[in-house]
Amino acid sequence: LYLHDLTDKQVNAIIVREAKNPTPLFDQIRENNLADEVRLPFFLRFVIERHNKGISLPSNNAMLYKDWVSLSYQQQREKYTEDVFEEATLMESLMRMALVLQLTGKMQLAKEELVKIVGEDGAKRLIKNDLITDGAEYGFKYNSIKEYLIARSLRIKSLAEVKERVCFRNREEINPVWRN
Predict the structure, then answer these.
(1) Alpha-carbon distance values, 24 to 46, 55, 63 (Å)
(2) Does residue 179 have a pLDDT over 80?
């Protein structure tokens, strides 16, 4: 299943229809350079819901993704109250899963593979998270969240370490698996 980006006209119509007092929302989207992100239906819904609750938009697209992961954590904690863990633990597990998917060129992993990456408890938590697909194998519902998590995990690496991961061995050429 692939969702096409919305057009600007579609985005504007949805905001006018769904948002309480849409003018300030349009202004925040423009000021925070979030026009590309709100073309994605799930982000548009997320942004409108935040606006309607009186929550200001994140200052950039990286913060929008971070807030989306935080929301998935909060929803998971509310749904599974007996499972106590920190948001940073979920973020680390999500980043590991994203990197393994990218490095292996896979779209999904079996539960056994998740257990190897993040341990039994981590795998159980990932499977329960709203960002992860349901089924016999597990992947990210949206490729953009996987890309954000990969970028987040690479940002703490040195340039040499990043090149080592994304380029062919002994060459400056980027491996096509990393192009996007």
Answers:
(1) 16, 12, 19
(2) no
Q: pTM of the full predicted structure? A: 0.77
Q: What is the 3-state secondary structure (H, E, C) of the chain?
A: CCCCCCCHHHHHHHHHHHCCCHHHHHHHHHHCCCCCHHHCHHHHHHHHHHHHCCCCCCCCHHHHHHHHHHHHHHHHHHHCCCCCCCHHHHHHHHHHHHHHHHHHCCCCEEHHHHHHHHHHHHHHHHHHCCCECCCCEECECCHHHHHHHHHHHHCCCCHHHHHHHHECCCCCCECHHHCC
176 forms bridges with which residues in the sheet?
none
- Please report which confidence band the pLDDT of residue 1 belongs to, taking 50, 70 and 90 as the band edges: very low
Residue 34 has which token pair? 């979030």
Q: What is the pLDDT of residues 44-87, one digit of tens each?
A: 999 999 999 999 899 998 899 999 899 989 988 898 888 778 88
